[in-house]
C-alpha cells in the first residue's frame, strides 16, 4: 500500500515511486511465499494531491504498465499471479486511480501478461457500474479473485442492501468460476456471528458446514 501515513494507497501507477514500488513488491513476494499464497494484490495508488486526474492520466498509465510488466516477470519466477482491483471513487476513495473493471481490463490488455488478472470486488463494481450479471460474464476470463460485500453498508451478504448474493453465487457456478470468493466486508457483529449467512447458504444448497473441503466446492 505504500506510505499510508503520507496518504498513499498503493504505488504501482504513481509516477516517481517506481523504486519504492519494486521494494514493496519484493517484500510482498517474500510474505506470500512464506504463507503459501499464490496471489498478490498490486495496488494502483491514488492520483497525487494537487493534480487533476485528466492531467496525469497518461503518465500514470505509462507508469502502471511499466510496473505491471516488471511485476509479471517477477511473479512468473514464483508461479504467482498479480491482481488488479478497481476501487470505487464515488464512496470509498475519490482519488484512487483504477476505479472500474473496464479500466482494469484495458490496462491488462495493454500489459499482455497471462499471470496478471482482475480482482473483482462486487461492492465496488456495483457502485461504479451495476450490471453485475453482464460484467461477470464479460470479464470472467480475466478474473483471478472475487470479493463480496453488501451495498451500500459493506456488511454481510444477507444484510439489507442492493445485491442478491444467492443469485450471484449460482451465476458464478454456472459460468464455471472455480476460484475463491473473499469476504471483504465489515461484520455488523463479531466474525463468527457474521458467518451465519454462510452456514444458512450451505444448508440451502444441501452442503455440510463441518470442515471445509466439501463446502469450499
What does this structure look like?
The protein has 9 helices and 5 strands; from the N terminus they run H-E-H-E-H-E-H-H-E-H-E-H-H-H. It is α/β, with parallel strands linked by helices. It has a single domain, classed as TIM Barrel (Alpha-Beta Barrel), CATH 3.20.20.150. The protein has a 5-stranded parallel β-sheet with strand order 1-2-3-4-5. Helix 6 links the parallel strand 4 and strand 5. Helix 1 runs parallel beside helix 2, helix 2 crosses helix 3 and helix 5 packs parallel to helix 6.
* The first-level CATH class name: Alpha Beta
General form? globular
Q: Based on the coordinates given, report the CATH architecture.
A: Alpha-Beta Barrel
Q: What amount of the residues lies in strands?
A: 5-15%
CA-atom Rg in angstroms: 18 Å
Q: Write the CATH fold name.
A: TIM Barrel
Biggest β-sheet: strands ordered side by side in the sheet = 1-2-3-4-5
| H/E element order | HEHEHEHHEHEHHH
Q: Averaging pLDDT over every residue, what do you get? A: 94
Query: Could you tell me how far the N terminus lies from the C terminus, measured between alpha carbons in angstroms?
Result: 32 Å
Query: How many domains would you count in the coordinates?
Result: 1
Number of helices: 9
Helix amount, in percent? 40-55%
Largest sheet: 5 strands, parallel
How many beta strands in the DSSP annotation?
5
- CATH homolog superfamily: Divalent-metal-dependent TIM barrel enzymes
In terms of per-residue confidence, which ranges show pLDDT below 50 for 5 or more consecutive residues?
212-217
Q: Structural class, from secondary structure content?
A: alpha/beta
Protein name: Putative hydroxypyruvate isomerase
Pfam families: AP_endonuc_2
GO molecular function: hydroxypyruvate isomerase activity
Family: Belongs to the hyi family.
